[in-house]
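Database export, one record per block. Field names are fixed; values are copied verbatim from the stored entry.
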Amino acid sequence: MRFMILLKADPHSEAGHMPSEQLLADMGRFNDELIKAGVMVSGEGLHPSSRGARVRFSKDGGVSVEHGPFPETKQLVAGFWIWRVASREEAIAWVKKVPMPMESGEAEIEIRQIFEMEDFGDNMTPELREQEERQRAALGQ
């Protein structure tokens, strides 16, 4: 099973403050542990929403773009990992080991399971499965 681990933003991260050298070192050690355990697929930190945009699609076919920053700090993501683990419980156990990721001393991390082809049942036709496998191969996955 794959899970996306979402580190929620806070006012500090949204202000563009860089993590301390100590936090970078702690996260580096934690990532090494994840890699050694065969858990980590990928992970990245994200720039503040002031450098982002939201694209909205409407029922009538319209498309609109809203440029950041976005006001709902607790709904924003400051970084993420993709992990491959046996269960949600294992993902939770790993998240509990994450070094305190925010300078404020408070943080929230959301765990979301990633869909696999099998989850789509009969809607994932052999042709669509072949396309998905071809795309993953092209991406080196």
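Remark 1: Strands lie at 2-8, 40-45, 53-57, 63-67, 77-84, 109-113.
Remark 2: The chain has a mean pLDDT of 95.
End of record.
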